[in-house]
Structures are given as C-alpha cells and as structure tokens.
Amino acid sequence: xxxxxxxxxxxxxxxxxxxxxxxxxxxxxxxxxxxxxxxxxxxxxxxxxxxxxxxxxxxxxxxxxxxxxxxxxxxxxxxxxxxxxxxxxxxxxxxxxxxxxxxxxxxxx
Length: 109
Fold this sequence. Notes:
Layout: H1 2-6, H2 22-30, E1 36-39, H3 43-56, E2 67-70, E3 76-79, E4 84-87, H4 94-97, H5 103-107
Antiparallel strand pairs: 1-4, 2-3
C-alpha cells in the first residue's frame, strides 16, 4: 500500500487486504483501497486450536474436517473453513455492527 501511495498510484491500482484493520477501512473510505476481509475475532481461532489438538490426539480424523488438500508430498491435509465477509465501500458499516470499531473511529468524527 505504501509503495502505491508514494508512487502516486493510489486509486489507480486495485489494493485489497485481508485483516479488516482500522487503517484499511479508512483507506476504503478514501478510495485508495478496494476491499478487506472481515473475519471472526475470537470464536474461530479457539475452535481451530482445539480442533488441531484433538486431531493430534487422535480424537478427530480427517473426515471430521470440512475438506482437505494435498500438500507438495501428496499427503492429504485436512482443513476447516469459516465464514468471512468482503468489506467494500458499500458495507464498511458492517465492521461497526461486528463490534470491531466505532463509527467515530472509522469515520474519524
């Protein structure tokens, strides 16, 4: 993002993010970033850690996960997915509804 800004390319190059941080939301409002991704703050990380532990202990099998992918050695690696939402200029307020930030923080008012 910084390189686009310093090169004078802000608004000309489509920049997307995946962390839904405050600066990203403000860049979306300013038109220098197209989107970011809103993910659950605490629910899913705890779920994933517990699933990894249970898998390691043999209490979960690959079939208990959402899906799997083959790694470079051809071994099936199970994974879990979770809901996320693409945030654009049209739905920035969804970050407020999710409790991430206040209106005042995002809109700097």
